[in-house]
């Protein structure tokens, strides 16, 4: 039976990582008084981790922004009205566009871990600016993966997921789900895996991570050598005839070419480079290939280190070559409702390259590693104006110093955030967004298959001060830029007249007719729906209005899957019925139930096959082996950005939220620490070719000798004090990145460590 407080609980979700676990919360006097996992959430079903209980520290703290702010010549900020701020920004943006064209504008961000609804509105701004230069944190971790997907499956939006819950054999490479999550209900899922003797869990990690400690087999690999390991495994599989010939023949092309390369792999030599035992590698390769079902789950440990893109290719080959794809317990393609990423094949010249680095976008995104150079570039075609929304690149992108310097050279920098961040301090204008618990909000991290869900969250608090939802901020800005009028009388009338949820067919038809008549407005459908249909939605859910367009398109493409999820309607009304369910069900909605057979229709190559041979990757495979050894001046490999119990990107700013590890310690193997004369708790200097930090040392025998780790998500100022904890990107370098995708090698930063002499 539900207790009284559960009955009064409001439904929402955690916004701290991509799992977005459902929450049932109690609110009293404008504060969270109880935060629990919501058993009614279709995916998390009651699960949460220790970080969610602290959400009051996100919602209410000293550095929340209350009013629009304008920076003064002396660096201080004064309060201005929304009209003052937006009039001036609109004026300056249109002047820059007129004088320098779209290339002068860049956008950074577009949603963090929990807020992607605003992205539908902010993306209208780059369209208004005629710019395609969207920089994003995804392009400092996942674009290698997206690029490979584009080649394998025919489109960069073909994103895969892994059915860890049902696999007999799970290979975790470079990821620590116990702390970082990333898989459904991570700790429960890991426990299930561990306690079932018929299932095997393998962790490849240079560190005996919390996940590795639960594994059947831990391969404590030498950092940066995963490509050698995966190639050796693939070679063992193919030579042993353990590949799935039937799957390869039926669903793939290019295996012959790939097989030739794999047969040439010097297995023993490659295994030696990983510093693993040959018998262990052999056992894992054979175990993975012969398991009834197997899947691979990877993350930053191979995405932010040497050979990033090749790692992404090889990891996928492991499950493809063994036929663990498109089936229960394997890796699978999934569908999106909110399109988080796009497609931009660099072989097509229509996707513009940047001025300085001639860098192409991947999935429509440009990498943060090149941005300082694109701003500081001498040419007329440099980046001059920027919006940063839902990101804090001054701390999270490589080379903090380069960001501070280059952002200082922008003619206009506007930051949209809930808090006064390090990036906001560099801005000309800081615009206060309502928090994720003060507005209608949702994420696009719905990456499940075959069942997929969507959670639209309703507001729990009134917006703080004068803060506004992004929907309103960007719509007002477009109005002030004269891109759209503020009223659409005909559409407003139709939206009002239409009996609630009759399928919204009349509204969509009228909208389509309007946009045909005024093609200039086509990029702004989201804001137009917000101002029209939005006004007639219940509970002020106006910001959710554009979801009707998305549910309509989704239901058209995946009608059977949407119906299997229990939504009803004909060709015209199914999308509206999904929209209505999303609006009404506050705990989240099952939106689709696919079948594994749908997999082949999700592949976008016209032949519906997986194209295994990617020439660039085959060439990189052949060139592997000629590595330069680490420099003598920097003998340690620093993993700059570990996920720990109390870090959560830049989302919490008040250091009081952390129950442990307030200093964000530098972890070091005790033997290394002793050798350097560093006691547990001592102060050390950690120096890279880019910069230097003073850090506190923590002895930790889970590390490999010769490696050190620092946590991600520290270094914020708070309440006028700080920084609290290490600003790790003072150590990282813009050029230290994957040559193809320009994603950083944050997990492989050569450093020198020495005691601080007092
Ligand atoms: N607690 C917490 N959870 C988070 C976040 C957070 O800030 N805090 N952030 C979220 C975000 S944005 C992301 S992207 C994910 C990231 O999630 P993960 O990638 O799982 O987390 P990390 O700790 O960054 O790195 C994973 C592991 O890679 C290992 N590793 C380092 N170098 C190598 C290598 O050369 N080879 C191999 N095989 N492994 C290596 C590290 O030891 C580490 O255990 O976490 C999300 N979840
Ligand atoms: N060295 C090193 N650097 C790293 C990493 C690493 O491992 N090592 N990890 C990288 C990875 S994987 C990631 S994902 C990035 C993360 O870094 P960022 O992309 O910079 O994103 P977040 O830390 O998620 O910051 C989210 C911002 O959004 C704000 N915010 C919260 N809610 C709202 C809202 O409703 N509206 C608006 N407008 N703003 C809001 C928060 O106050 C915060 O400033 O860091 C990357 N940087
Ligand atoms: S941090 Fe991630 S795993 Fe933990 S409760 Fe929040 S969404 Fe769930
Ligand atoms: Mo991330």
Question: Which key features would you list for this structure?
Answer:
758 residues, alpha/beta, N-terminal domain of TfIIb, Dimethylsulfoxide Reductase, domain 2, six-stranded mixed β-barrel, binds ligand MGD, binds molybdenum atom, iron
TL;DR?
One of its GO terms (molecular function) is metal ion binding. This protein is α/β, with parallel strands linked by helices and 758 residues long.
Output the CATH topology of the domain at 160-333 and 608-622.
Answer: Dimethylsulfoxide Reductase, domain 2
Helix content: 25-40%
Global shape? globular
Class from helix and strand fractions = alpha/beta
Biggest beta sheet attributes = 7 strands, mixed
Q: Work out the radius of gyration.
A: 26 Å
Low-confidence runs: none
Major sheet: arrangement of strands: 5-4-17-16-15-6-7
Highest-level CATH class of the domain at 160-333 and 608-622: Alpha Beta
What's the total number of strands? Answer: 28
Beta-strand proportion: 15-25%
Helical region count?
27
Terminal-residue CA separation:
61 Å
What does the average pLDDT come to? 96
Bound small-molecule species: ligand MGD, iron/sulfur cluster, molybdenum atom
In CATH, the architecture of the domain at 160-333 and 608-622 is 3-Layer(aba) Sandwich
- Write out the CATH superfamily name of the domain at 160-333 and 608-622: Dimethylsulfoxide Reductase, domain 2
GO molecular function, one term: molybdopterin cofactor binding
Protein name: Molybdopterin-dependent oxidoreductase
Keywords: 4Fe-4S, Iron, Iron-sulfur, Metal-binding, Oxidoreductase
InterPro entries: Asp_de-COase-like_dom_sf, MoPterin_dinucl-bd_dom, Mopterin_OxRdtase, Mopterin_OxRdtase_4Fe-4S_dom, Prok_molybdopt-oxidoreductase
């Amino acid at each position: 039976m539900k207790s009284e407080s559960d009955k009064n609980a409001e439904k929402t979700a955690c916004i701290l990582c991509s799992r977005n676990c459902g929450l049932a919360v109690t609110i009293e006097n404008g504060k969270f008084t109880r935060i629990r996992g919501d058993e009614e959430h279709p995916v998390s079903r009651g699960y949460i981790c220790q970080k969610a209980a602290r959400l009051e520290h996100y919602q209410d703290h000293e550095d929340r922004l209350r009013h629009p702010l304008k920076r003064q010549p002396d660096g201080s900020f004064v309060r201005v009205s929304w009209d003052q701020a937006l009039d001036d920004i609109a004026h300056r943006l249109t002047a820059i566009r007129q004088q320098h064209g779209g290339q002068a504008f860049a956008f950074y961000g577009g949603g963090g871990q929990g807020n992607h609804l605003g992205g539908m509105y902010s993306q209208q701004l780059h369209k208004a600016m005629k710019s395609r230069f969207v920089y994003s944190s995804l392009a400092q971790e996942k674009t290698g993966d997206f690029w490979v997907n584009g080649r394998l499956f025919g489109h960069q939006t073909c994103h895969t997921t892994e059915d860890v819950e049902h696999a007999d054999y799970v290979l975790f490479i470079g990821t620590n789900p116990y702390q970082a999550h990333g898989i459904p209900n991570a700790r429960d899922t890991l426990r299930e895996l561990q306690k079932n003797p018929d299932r095997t869990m393998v962790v490849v990690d240079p560190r005996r991570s919390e996940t590795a400690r639960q594994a059947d087999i831990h391969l404590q690999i030498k950092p940066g050598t995963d490509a050698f390991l995966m190639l050796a495994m693939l070679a063992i599989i193919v030579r042993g005839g353990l590949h799935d010939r039937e799957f390869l023949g039926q669903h793939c092309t290019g295996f012959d070419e790939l097989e030739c390369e794999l047969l040439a792999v010097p297995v023993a030599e490659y295994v030696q480079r990983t510093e693993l035992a040959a018998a262990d590698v052999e056992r894992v390769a054979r175990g993975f290939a012969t398991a009834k079902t197997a899947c691979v789950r990877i993350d930053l440990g191979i995405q932010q280190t040497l050979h990033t893109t090749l790692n992404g290719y090889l990891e996928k080959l492991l499950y493809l070559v063994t036929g663990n794809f498109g089936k229960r317990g394997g890796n699978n393609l999934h569908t999106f409702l909110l399109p988080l990423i796009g497609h931009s094949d660099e072989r097509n010249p229509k996707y513009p390259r940047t001025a300085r680095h001639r860098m192409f976008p991947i999935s429509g995104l440009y990498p943060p590693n090149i941005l300082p150079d694109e701003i500081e570039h001498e040419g007329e075609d440099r980046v001059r104006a920027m919006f940063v929304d839902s990101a804090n690149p001054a701390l999270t992108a490589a080379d903090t110093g380069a960001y501070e310097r280059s952002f200082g050279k922008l003619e206009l920098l506007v930051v949209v955030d809930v808090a006064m961040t390090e990036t906001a301090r560099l801005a000309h204008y800081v615009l206060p967004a309502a928090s994720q618990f003060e507005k209608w909000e949702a994420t696009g991290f719905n990456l499940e298959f075959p069942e997929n869900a969507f959670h639209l969250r309703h507001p729990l608090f009134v917006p703080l001060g004068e803060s506004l939802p992004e929907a309103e901020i960007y719509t007002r800005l477009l109005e002030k830029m004269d891109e759209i009028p503020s009223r659409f009388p005909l559409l407003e009338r139709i939206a009002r007249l239409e009996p609630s949820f009759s399928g919204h067919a009349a509204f969509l038809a009228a909208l389509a007719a309007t946009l045909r008549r005024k093609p200039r407005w086509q990029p702004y459908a989201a804001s137009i729906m917000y101002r029209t249909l939005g006004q007639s939605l219940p509970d002020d859910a106006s910001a959710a209005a554009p979801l009707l367009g998305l549910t309509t398109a989704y239901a058209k493409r995946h009608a059977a899957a949407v119906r299997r999820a229990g939504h009803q309607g004909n060709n015209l009304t199914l999308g509206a019925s999904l929209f209505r369910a999303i609006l009404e069900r506050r705990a989240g909605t099952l939106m689709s139930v696919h079948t594994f057979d749908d997999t082949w229709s999700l592949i976008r190559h016209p032949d519906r096959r997986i194209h295994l041979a990617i020439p660039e990757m085959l060439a990189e495979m052949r060139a592997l082996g000629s590595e330069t050894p680490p420099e003598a001046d920097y003998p340690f490999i620093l993993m700059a950005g570990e996920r720990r119990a109390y870090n959560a990107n830049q989302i919490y700013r008040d250091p009081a939220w952390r129950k442990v590890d307030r200093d964000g310690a530098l972890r070091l193997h005790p033997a290394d620490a002793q050798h350097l004369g560093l006691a547990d708790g001592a102060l050390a200097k950690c120096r890279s070719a880019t910069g230097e930090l003073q850090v506190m040392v923590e002895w930790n025998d889970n590390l490999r000798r010769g490696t050190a780790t620092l946590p991600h998500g520290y270094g914020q100022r708070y309440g006028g004090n700080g920084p609290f904890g290490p600003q790790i990107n003072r150590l990282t370098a813009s050029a230290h990145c994957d040559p193809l995708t320009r994603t950083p090698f944050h997990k492989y930063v050569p450093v020198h460590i020495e005691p601080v002499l007092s």
